[in-house]
């Protein structure tokens, strides 16, 4: 395990203490006026302690999701069908780890060290996205992840890239460019299976049936049950509510799935053309809670793999931090 906690230098530490002691009402009003004018908040700027705490929580969870999210797809690199798909998958997995890197950097600007974030991931204190706690049983699962989970992530990230915290928005912008390529390769693989042999089509349908509920969960609990949305939307960290994002995803992607002759495992799924709202069977929210709190089918395995990576990569980090100590002593 790492040590470490906050990484501020002295002037910033003083500012953090000041924020934590009292959110000065005059400063708070100035801060909220800046947000209302659409200005970006930057790391050295005054911010309410709750804004800082919420951003750390959200960006850190997002970063963890990227590095844990690389695991189910990573297991398919050696088994991808053909050289073209293998190359695309290697590049995608590498991108996802890079997104984790960008996001950890963005969270570090708020004062929490990378080490403390990794510790909180490994101890189970910090969450990561529900969808990465399910196995990728077949190539069709990888296809559904590449098409629909990347699509869901893009809906969330394109919106939040217009938010208020500069470093997070800039990271999201870059991530969205790369996710758009992921989405294209996922869609291409999806079309190939959907228009392939009956066995390929069936494999895809089975994967869709398995993934539909986790994808509906992905956007978070319904607005009425969302703990953080109201404040995060006031502060323009979240630019749309969980239900609005879910609706936007359904609007954009259900037609694309259906036009390929695939079905979705929800008889209630339909759009009201006058309101533009989709109705659906409420996904099982008790199951969602269980999965995000460590009780999903793959949570333990995912954290074990990360733990292994932390332990086996320690010598590399040590050498990077202190290259001289790693040099082989010259032979006398
Ligand atoms: N997976 C895991 N946990 C989730 C989740 C999901 N799909 N959706 C919600 N939660 C958790 C929240 O983190 C929160 O837990 P916490 O209080 O212990 O931190 C709890 O459920 C209540 O949800 P809510 O109040 O709606 O949380 P939120 O306002 O943070 O909204 C997201 C949830 C996922 C929409 C939001 O965190 C977000 O936009 N995150 C950044 C994008 C991201 O992480 N994407 C995943 C990887 S691509």
UniProtKB/TrEMBL annotation:
InterPro entries according to UniProt: Aromatic_CoA_ox/epox, Ferritin-like, Ferritin-like_SF, PaaA, PaaA_PaaC
SUPFAM superfamilies tied to this protein: Ferritin-like (SSF47240)
Pfam families: PaaA_PaaC (PF05138)
Protein name as it appears in the record: 1,2-phenylacetyl-CoA epoxidase subunit PaaA
